[in-house]
Amino acid sequence: MKLLFIFLALSLYLLQVECYRRRAYTRLGLVEDDDDYGESSSENDDAGEIWALLVAGSNGWYNYRHQADVAHAYHTLKQHGVKEDNIVTMMYDDIANNQQNPYPGQLFNSPNGKDVYKGVKVDYKGEAVNPQNFLAILQGDESGVSGGNGKVLKSNEKDKIFVFFSDHGATGLIAFPSSMVNI
């Protein structure tokens, strides 16, 4: 009986995750299958573009998953048609070539998965992954960023913005590698 309850709870959870994923994809105009998601983004060109800010708010080998998840999100967005120029990536970038990495120069976000580090364009690394740059990038303020390549979101009122922030946090708190922000 206990095993059945666990199975049902897990099934319900996975169904809920899939529903949230589909809803998010639909809102962003990311379509895997027109039958499943409704109108495709190519039929809705007047809706603007998709811009993305991907952030791994931690560093250190023990936080491997945060940078691997950001790298995976980068490839997922590109596979769904988001332009590389519209994706801004912030990650400390100390994991792929970490001395503890048994696969130098590679990151994986699932067992036996593909290298998600290959091909990722990291716009802000090291100390440039900070709250000030995060806010300046979101606001499209090129003069407000320091370090990195200066890339910001150049969105307009028709565009959609996707922010993926992978890290530890708590109510009213956002963590970055060398600082935390209370909100």
From TrEMBL:
Classification via InterPro entries: Peptidase_C13 (IPR001096)
| Any one GO molecular function term | cysteine-type endopeptidase activity
Q: Name one GO cellular component term.
A: vacuole
- Protein's UniProt keywords contain Ion transport: no
Which range is the signal sequence, renumbered to this chain?
Answer: 1-19
Taken from the record, one Pfam family name reads: Peptidase_C13
| Entry keyword set | Signal
Q: Which GO terms describe its biological process?
A: proteolysis involved in protein catabolic process; vacuolar protein processing
PANTHER family in alphabetical order: HEMOGLOBINASE FAMILY MEMBER, LEGUMAIN
Q: Which family does it belong to?
A: Belongs to the peptidase C13 family.
- Write the protein's name: Legumain
Q: Native species of this protein? A: Acrobeloides nanus
